[in-house]
Amino acid sequence: MFAPAPLISRLGGIARGVQLQQFGITRHQLAAAVDAGEIRRVRPGTFASLDAHPAELSAAQHGGALTCSAALRRHGVWVLSPGGPVHVWVGRRGRVHPHPRCSCVSHFFRGTPPFGLAEIEDALVHLYRCEGAESFFASFESAWQLRLLSKPARDRVRAALPASARWIVDLARPDAGSGLESVLRLRLHLLGIGLETQVHIDGVGRVDFVVGGRLIIEVDGKENHDGPSMRHKDLVRDAAASALGYETLHFDYAQVIHDWPSVERAILGALVRLGDHA
């Protein structure tokens, strides 16, 4: 015989009473567990374990599943947008339930939302509709790189996008080193600049991008290039690349995300210089 609290935890932290009844849990047991403080009643017919994630709990209170960037972040996928209001998938004809301190964003997308957390495929499609191509592309490549998207799953995501947006999936690769690299690659693609990704150069090692055969672009996430030791390694690599005729540009998160015009000017200027000296 199952007890309500551990069963709800196994089911993801949030469950309907009718679902719990399929495991032999009675209404009396649920009411007793709520009175004992072992579980909480989210709203009539819906229950949560005490360890339920706050955002998923808020989404369930609202009437649906956590989706968009917050859901993808919960799945371990890189997301471009910072934290914000809870985005809730309530379904095409879902009912919204106002609740204390509610700042939720309701998404009336088709389909039947689960309780708790939207699946990665659904969250990616919702992210495209909510935040656009760039956020979607970065998260899609991240999910693929993490092996969270099978070939059939990628095909389903592609089919769910508008026909005019399916090229974004076709451009995606499974070897993106970070979401930041995905953002930069997409932006350069839109400028008509092609590049090689994750290139191994003898004497230098693997670099993020090579443009025009002579320009190395490195996107330096804080976690990978912070501190004197890593900075020294970067300088050694840059010197080795220069000896082979390469120019190297480094950009960090703040530059790519918050000062893109300066990044674009630097790349275009380097390409002009290298072209003039070809």
Explain this structure to me?
This protein has 278 residues and is an alpha/beta fold. The chain folds into 3 domains: 1-52, no CATH class; 53-174, no CATH class; 179-276, VSR Endonuclease (Endonuclease, Chain A), CATH 3.40.960.10. Helices cover 47% and strands 17% of the residues. The strands form 3 sheets. It has a 4-stranded mixed sheet with strand order 6-5-4-7. The protein has a 4-stranded mixed sheet with strand order 8-9-10-11, sandwiched between helices. The longest helix has 17 residues, at 260-276. The N and C termini lie far apart (76 Å). The model has no long low-confidence stretch (mean pLDDT 91).
Which secondary structure elements does this structure contain, and how are they paired or packed?
Layout: H1 4-10, E1 14-16, H2 17-21, H3 27-35, E2 39-43, E3 46-49, H4 54-62, E4 65-66, H5 68-74, E5 87-89, E6 105-107, E7 116-117, H6 120-131, H7 133-145, H8 151-160, H9 167-171, H10 179-190, E8 196-201, E9 205-211, E10 215-220, H11 222-225, H12 228-243, E11 247-252, H13 253-258, H14 260-276
Parallel strand pairs: 4-7, 5-6, 10-11
Antiparallel strand pairs: 1-3, 2-3, 4-5, 8-9, 9-10
Helix pairs in contact: 5-6, 6-7, 6-8, 7-10
